[in-house]
What we know:
299 residues, six-stranded mixed β-sheet, 33% helix, alpha/beta, binds magnesium ion, 9 helices, single chain, Rossmann fold, globular, binds guanosine-5'-triphosphate
Amino acid sequence: MPDIFKSGYIGIVGKPNVGKSTLMNRLVGQKISIISPKPQTTRNRIMGVLTNPHSQMIFLDTPGIHNPKDQLHQFMKHEIDEAVQEVDLLLFMLEITSHLDEDDQAALEYLKSYRGPTLIAVNKTDTNPQAEKMLFQSPYGEYLNNRKVLYISALLGNGCDDLLKTIEELLPEGPQFFPEDTLTDRSERFIISEIIREKAYALFNQEVPYSIAVVTEEVKERTPEMGYVKAVIYVEKESQKGILIGSQGQTLKSLGKDARTEIEELLQKKVYLDLWVKVKKNWRRDPNAMKQLGMEIQQ
Ligand SMILES: Nc1nc2c(ncn2[C@@H]2O[C@H](COP(=O)(O)OP(=O)(O)OP(=O)(O)O)[C@@H](O)[C@H]2O)c(=O)[nH]1
Ligand SMILES: [Mg+2]
């Protein structure tokens, strides 16, 4: 083995819900990004770093590619564009489909216009064992000629070792950009907010999850064994506040319990989670409100 070190940025992109966050967590070996069966879960570019003796792979999980319909979508699109600008390799994920919906079209436009090195990962092969046969007959097929395609299950890990090997081969020789123990560039507060948002995605349907933004305002020690976390869940309407809190506060309590368990794992101690619900009217359409929630489009 020649004594060279490889490193670089890998942008994980694709339509909403194809499994980008599941894959990043799998490749890095740690839960960094939140996951949900609902589309448009990830809203930010989130870094996950895998360092080993011969390489450092810096993955950028991104929001699903879609046509923006409001200010939040604009922000998400901006996060994808920002991430892709700095990558050495684009990892384009897709699921086999018999017809291309609006999101597939948007994702394909992205792929077609991208000029740098690209690797295609066909995901969810556990639910589609015929994927290899079907890809080139599916509507995606005609756009993938001459591209390297790998078949994986991010959920079960099938094909993921091969994928890592291939990525490593394709990366340039380079320095170790981050210390060995770096897993992400995201703060503890950001990850706590995301955990709370993930539990809310699991509990609520229709518009409610999309109207939620979480801000973790305080993380401190109460005693050496006990942490204190204060977080505010913002919604867009009074009626949503009622749904979130539930009768006698039961719904919020149950959301808090789900989130607390995972926050305790993250902080490695017992935690008192102080959860608040506030209304920030129509924040998804309001650039100023978005800025206050930490989602500013920086030019
Ligand atoms: N069966 C199966 N399900 C998967 C696989 N990978 C991801 N999923 C599921 O697909 C859903 C979406 O996964 P995510 O990782 O949140 O997808 P995403 O692409 O990050 O979604 P957005 O952030 O909304 O763009 C979840 O329910 C996952 O459990 C897979 O390989 N097989
Ligand atoms: Mg995601």
